[in-house]
Amino acid sequence: MKIRTITTGISLSSLKEIEKIKQASEFNQQAKLIIEEQGYEVQTTRIATNSWEEYLHGLSKSEILNEIKLLEEVCQNLNISFFSLGYASKPETIALIPDIIKNTSILYTSSKIGDTPKESLRDGQSPAFGDRTSGINFKNARESAKVIQRISQETEDGYGNFHFCAWANCQSGIPFFPTAYHQGETSFAIGLELCDLVMQAFDDADDILDAEEKLKVILDQELSKIEATARTISHKFGIEYKGIDTSLAPSLGKKESIAFAYEKIMDGKFGNQGTLAISGMLTRVLKSVSVKTCGYSGLMLPVCEDVGLAARANEQTYNITNLLAYSAVCGCGLDTVPIPGDITIEKITAILIDMATLAIKLDKPLSARLFPIPGKKAGEMTAFTSPYLVDCRIFNVE
């Protein structure tokens, strides 16, 4: 098991609060050292803020971009490699995101396109779809689709979309990027890479029920150790510990592929019959562990971040509709999904609205990180140069 991220959340009122960013960076490094002393590999440390609409309020477009460029310089001087600006929730600010992405390299951001209207649900009423504060915000969804298209056209190979996603019903405290944002006092959360433990459990399992029992035992045992260390860190530095996001973050290693783990206990390949059942089982286990959880705490299926998922996509054993169906019982939605470069804004919007509909109907956090690939069509291969991504056949979008 590896620690994918230690993510510290801070609330800013302006970007002049450099000291608060510096303190968060120093805390991350100290926390990293303490966890590494316990024998774990910590892959990244990250900082997430409240919505940038709050601390860049009232500035012009050029002023916002200048402030963000200065922020990137500050982060680079502090050796910060992952910094989330939080989310945008208005069409006019969402529209600025392509300029933010193409003028920075370590900053991430997201857009909010929907929320479950808690009050309406408690009263037994239907969600107020289309309302600006609850249900699906169609204007934000369409503006986010425009953002995805623009980023794909204005960054090399469309890679800028790695730094952006649209989400619905996501709460603060998710440690994984680009969805991560923060509210309240400074706190930290931990995100893990657990595929090796899934492989371990599934290797010895007779069937899906046996796999579920074995995985629960392994996770309870291993995650309790991480939590004990996290609570020690919290007490030592006086910073709130939000919990562990137990999501199965992907690995680029073939031995830790989540798709190949599935295939140890199913009759067929990932995407064949039985995939949905295993997805549901994994999520049950991830949500039942005996530690404090936060964030998605579900199954992630990022197509271009997992060798096995990419391989099965190349074999066309599943499609975008399948991924949305799996999201109904598991993870974080649609992640690093390559789609044709000439896809229309209308089709991207439809995908985002489908995702948001599931999030609101099922009252769960979901997001979409889509990769239109410039100049390429469905069936062709991506050609990423990033060490974080594997190449994959581009999905067909009807």
UniProtKB/TrEMBL annotation:
The lineage of its organism: Bacteria, Bacillati, Cyanobacteriota, Cyanophyceae, Oscillatoriophycideae. InterPro entries: UPF0210 (IPR007841). It comes from the Bacteria. This is DUF711 family protein. It comes from Plectonema radiosum NIES-515. Gene3D superfamilies: 3.20.70.20.
